[in-house]
Design goal:
Lipocalin; 2 helices; 18% helix; signal; META domain-containing protein
Length: 155
């Protein structure tokens, strides 16, 4: 009987440890892979499978760097929460202040992703930020009912 009780307790501990999730990824200090780009209402992500893992972003206190899958990019951003300046971890919105993107190679296999990202992430663009555990969603502020968004996953 004691043996069954010990085995049952061990099973409960193992089951509970299997349910734990990875710690929440901080917005800064984390490399974020672009997993989805939603640009057409009612359509799934337009990120083609062959582009998976190529595009990525990283955020600093007031900066953004990354790679479109074809070219590096870097810029500065302003961060707000309820209209007040804040730090990147607390931000609900960010505005792209300045952005530099290198010219991509003509034969880049991720040219469509490069084009979509540079059309969405441009100076003056304002994004609503949703940060859940190891996911980040940047939704472009526009008048559209279904707003374009970029899905990211922590690496």
């Amino acid at each position: 009987m004691k043996r069954l009780l010990l085995t049952g307790a061990t099973a409960v501990v193992l089951a509970l440890s299997a349910c734990t999730t990875e710690p929440t990824a901080e917005v800064t200090g984390t490399s974020w892979l672009v997993t989805d780009i939603w640009t057409v209402p009612g359509e799934p992500s337009t990120l083609p499978p062959e582009a998976a893992g190529r595009a990525r972003l990283a955020f600093g206190a007031h900066s953004m760097t990354g790679h479109t899958g074809c070219a590096p990019m870097q810029g500065t951003v302003s961060l707000t929460r309820e209209g007040e300046d804040t730090d990147v971890e607390s931000a609900h919105t960010f505005t792209v202040e300045r952005l530099e993107v290198e010219e991509p190679a003509a034969d880049c296999p991720s040219a469509a992703v490069h084009e979509q990202l540079t059309e969405l992430i441009e100076p003056g663009a304002v994004f609503d930020v949703r940060h859940d555990d190891r996911d980040l969603v940047l939704t472009l502020r526009t008048d559209a009912v279904d707003r374009p968004a970029i899905g990211l996953a922590a690496v």
